[in-house]
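S.,

As promised, the magnesium ion run. Input:
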Amino acid sequence: MTALPTRKAEAWRYADLKAVEALWPPQPARLISVRAGEAQEEIVRVREGGLHDLRVELAAGATLRLVILVQSSGYARVAVEAHLNEGAHLDLGGILLGDGEATQEIVTEIRHSAPGATSRQRVRLVVDDRSTGTYLGRIAVARDAQKSDAEQSARALVLKRTATANLKPELEIYADDVKCAHGCTVGELDKAARFYLQSRGLPRALADALLTRAFVADALTGLEDSSTREALEAETAEWLEQRA
Amino acid sequence: MLVIENLHANVGDKPILKGLSLIVNAGEVHAIMGPNGAGKSTLAHVLAGREGYTVTQGTATFDGKDLLDLEPHERAAAGLFLGFQYPVEIPGVSNLLFLRTALNAQRRLRGEPEISGADFMKKVRTESAVLGLDMEMLKRGVNVGFSGGEKKRNEAFQLGMLEPKLALLDETDSGLDIDALRIVSEGINRFRSPERAVLLITHYQRLLDHVRPDYVHVLADGRIVETGGPDLALRLEAQGYEGIAA
Ligand SMILES: Nc1ncnc2c1ncn2[C@@H]1O[C@H](COP(=O)(O)OP(=O)(O)OP(=O)(O)O)[C@@H](O)[C@H]1O
Ligand SMILES: [Mg+2]
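Predicted complex:
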């Protein structure tokens, strides 16, 4: 059994260690494996606090579209470890909605183990009140995994200055013919956009909800089925409007 | 309809409006002209309730209500519309969703029933056709990827959709090509009625050739320094602002 993590471990630096202690040891990881050449879509909703480990195995040419929606009141950590074989594709959308005192984390480790695999991550964190949202995203490209393409975009929206967002990308690349576009930004709602909406008749809270919904929607663009996408958008909209 | 008396306002700590008075009655069209930096957009923003502007003195009432006491969305529901000099781009919020949300939020606040989807789309089709905005553009994010002139046409489109009582148009004519200027002007003229009023902020006589104002004001250094009829605009066009008392 693995030892209880401490603050010294990079991957646990922003965790709520008190909560982790109570949850330790974690349940075995849930396995999502996609067979060679097949495609699959998975939605993982985390409403309950806890340690949620996912292990993703993508065989050669397999595709997985994975969306993770984290919105719990207590401490929640979703950790994804993904192995991509030759020509596999992983599309990962992450949404984390935090309010109250919640500490929530999305931790990903995407391993490009063979040539020609692609991964695309879009993670959007929204933190309000005194909540903490963290995204740790590590991408590892093995020595012979040439022509890998790993795209990573992480953005956090801080609704109140008492809230905290941590975004930490990490690249570990041993192959030389690799594309790795990545971007991380933390920001607040655009005041000019808010005023524009207000001036047309939207109360401030509704304007903020609309802007936040648009911010989050980026994480769902990988879903092919528009009805699933709309259902997830509606779920986040509900969270936003409750606070309006 | 709009009564502004001795209005003083700061942007941050800097005084911009310095004792501005203006009365706009229903049925009238007023044009405000004036040098860059005079405070025209500041006036528009103060009237619409933008954050960061502080009124230090004076009053502004709209249909007898204290305008300065209302939230921006309450001013909109009361019938005030601000056409922006620089319309904002909002990725991820489609023009149609935005407008329908705005229209219904205003209606709710006024105690009116929401507009049905069918009625809304019918109105969208009528108004957008007049302004030459196609449905593909309206499905895009608010003003996203719109050219300068298209953004201004979108402001005119929103004016037509929201049907306010007072349209405060801040350089809605800037950036429009000759045909678009005519189209937008026609939009403003269609909007004109005995119950409504228009306040046009502009630098150009061109607009006033199409939309004939009842009054022309010169705003300089935070105050109205001269008021006249349409001929004042012609005189300014010929002589510039030099010679106008500041
Ligand atoms: N946020 C701000 N901070 C500091 N000064 C500001 C700010 N916004 C406006 N100002 C100043 O206030 C003054 C008036 O600006 P305003 O935009 O109202 O002018 P305007 O009459 O609309 O000019 P234009 O014809 O160029 O549109 C200018 O000197 C401007 O620099
Ligand atoms: Mg201006």
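Chain A is about 20% helix and 45% strand. The radius of gyration of chain A is 18 Å.

- D.
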